[in-house]
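Changelog-adjacent note: as of this version, every example in the card shows the full chain rather than a window. The one below runs 416 residues end to end.
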Amino acid sequence: MSLRPFSRRPSSGLVLPALASTLLVQVVSSLGAGATPLLGPFLTQRWGVPTESVGYLTAMQSAGICWYLAGGSPMLAHFGAIRSLQIGLACVAFGLLLLSQPLLPLAMAGALLIGLGLAPNTPAGSQVLMRAAPPAHRSLVFSIKQAGVPLGGALAGVVVAPLLFWLGFPGAIWLLAALMVAVALFVQVFRRILDADGGPRQPDWPRMFVSPSSFTRAVRILQDGPGLVMLTAIGVSFSTLQACVTGLTATYMVTRHGHSLAAAGLLMATLLASSTLARVGFGWLADRVGAARGPLLLALLALGSSASILLMVLAAGAGSWMVYGCMVLVGATAMGWNGIHLAELARMAPVGRVSEVTSAASLFGFVGAVCGPLLFAFSVSRTGSFDGAYLGAAAQLALFGLFALWRATVAARPKG
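Full-length structure tokens:
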């Protein structure tokens, strides 16, 4: 089922409102979601479960994202991009309130809702930006928007611990939820111009949202364009590692290396701030070297990500400056790939199907984001070693990066 069509020809007057609205929602929703892993040590102690169990909470959040990406395209077509982003913020707010409850089942439901609220950012944002971004600067525009993910997480790293100190746990959660609602109301001013392209409504979207055929429909969508399957696969590999890094590093630093929650928050803020700058920088670089080099850049980033994780594991118990340096490297490499990846997906998508392609590819990416923390938590519970789990996650990306590098090198060779 196709989303409402829109032209590939950009409208220059829409660039700033499109980028401003999608970036703001991305930052704020990521701030709300970023509180979950930072609260990991506090939440697991509150529930009386092992510290590595925060990986299951992260996996539940990713499962919510997968659910929306599998069945949410008709919903996005029905409501439009900006309205979908507003609904997403409301889901994040309600999810945070459930997460504040002392009962683990309610908290898991809250994590699922947070994932459902985060998910519209990718397809709705891509729909808006593809219509507005000039082709010569498309990778940069997409990367700036995607920089909102680590920027929101970095803000969470800076503000969550002080909010807990000043307001207590319930007060901090309520304030974050109120922020989600306020931004959802604010972006209403952009809806008239950015959702004005119209298109057929999808009154049967609730049925499609829970339909088991959604996953197979995503597979068919990705088979419609050359190179989409390979591009999706490397996104899955990146997402697997990224979910482990964002979901468990704060707990790793607190429980294995004796950092306070505030210190772990600053380390996460450093990692995510580095990712913010790297996404913009790599987007600019991708525009300069040309679209044909996008897969090569992703392969090189995969290898760099694996090396940076190895360095982090080796240096995690060293001096603070060494640890902060590792956070910068991990953030730049393991989390700086998203903008290039989304721009490549948009470039390769059949005309009028950008949102569907990005939803389908992101769905498989978040399958990796679900499986990564689950396997990580299982590995730690069996071996007692966070280090081994990190190295395993890095190794799978290194192998995929080598394969992607070989593919990109073969494709670049002159024929005949």
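Structural remarks: Confidence is low (pLDDT under 50) at residues 1-9.
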